[in-house]
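Good morning,

Both structures are done.
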Amino acid sequence: MTRSLDTTPKPEAAAAPSLIAVDRAVGELRRGGLVLVEHAGGSALMMAAEAVSDESLTLLAAAAGSDVLLALTGRRAGALGLGDTEAGVFRVTPKNGFDAATIAWLADPGARSLPMPVFSTLDARRAGGLDEACVALAKLARLLPAAVLAPALAVPAGAVRVAAAEITSYQENAARSLRQVSQARVPLENAETARIVAFRPSDGGIEHLAIVIGDPDPDQPVLARLHSECFTGDLLGSLRCDCGDQLRGAIAEIAQTGSGVLLYLAQEGRGIGLVNKLRAYQLQDDGFDTLDANLQLGFDDDERIYLPAAQMLRLLGIGRVRLLTNNPLKVDALARHGVEVTERVPHVFPSNDHNQGYLRTKATRSGHLF
């Protein structure tokens, strides 16, 4: 007898305090507030670099009781000529202190069109776990990957606190806490037998979705697609990428095959978020390709993780898939997380005048298969 996928909503587990702490810190950063990041080697008060003003820098230094520093990814430091590595985080200090204009010029390549501020010689050195956690928190907030921090000699009352270890383990813990919270039949164009199943992490973060088409047999390899959300391509039909074509094409192909699953993952812009993706588009208009634009911003060329996808498949009862993808990294990632990929199914669509360079870069520099 053929088994059916388990799409029944499950009781939501209580959120671990570590997830709640990171969620609160992310919200505070996005509001332009201060966060206390605690580490075995010391603590620091931090703000997101893109949120600072001269006034907030003064408040940060006064609250911490120490001078303000800037933490940048190795990618961004390399783009500025301050570092010689692509990995890790660099701590940048000026001889005579920072102002907001200098921080903006260093952290945001979009600010390079402004006059270069006058600043003293910068000292950039590889930083440790505290700085790395601060930058990681800015990334989780979908802000520029740069943090302004000051070693905390004093802790202001009511400060939002989070441990560095809670930040670095957040994505894995959030993925493992995913639960099915809702499902409904949603007939789609070219796939009238579709159901949408929503998965939510226990801290109440943004949901990932599974589009289940037909009645897949979990005892057999299931035709599957991992699709990262793309507001511009999926919803608006942007011609700068092939995401919309891939989304609708995958739904049609799965339906034509008879059954399968498309996982719609909340990781816009290869994991950097919509606002940063728009920043990357502006850099592409200035002459950088899709990968170098991310590197100029300080991100890796692909910031996505696929543990949420593997967890969603497990919760649906799927252990083996035939994966619709041109990206071998997805095959490797699922295998690392315990999902067997029995076949890579090519997923190619015609290019247009606006996305030819984008597709060529993915093929030549990211190893996408066509």
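Second structure follows.
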Amino acid sequence: MSGRWTTPEQDPRTYGNPVSELETYREYLGNYRLTIELKCDGLGADELARRSVPPSTLSLLGLVRHLAQVENHWFQRVLQGQTDGPRLYKSDEDRDLDFNGARPDPALVEDAFTTWKAEIAKADEWLDTRSDSDLGEQVRVHDETASVRDILVHVIEEYARHAGHADLLRESIDGRTGQ
């Protein structure tokens, strides 16, 4: 089992028993973001772009690109209404560009991680201006409305689901499990 798990001293995630609702969401979201990062740690472009099982296009690199798009969509486009410009890793020709475009190219890997981290920073900057009293605020999502709370829970759910995918992808690459 040596080398498969992060020791408690090296684990960057926190389990601080937050008091407020927003602090709880932020801790879970932060921990899932770190889990994805841990799953990708130490892998090169070929490994990150390795696809799961044909015909699936699922890969760790695709997940990072997808999660950058998720952060951008929910925090920038929906919660802040910044809909100008193209969507990240999406096009009219290829709605799955986040996964389909994940190729074993070091420049693509660098772009994906840089973009994902930038989107996380922008989301966290916005979250820094929020409080528990803002969680019930309603925003437009397509032809419906949803609360900020519902959107945060959805983003956490998206990360949790993909952390499970990442666990299986990483294990298939080098046998590493855990985190």
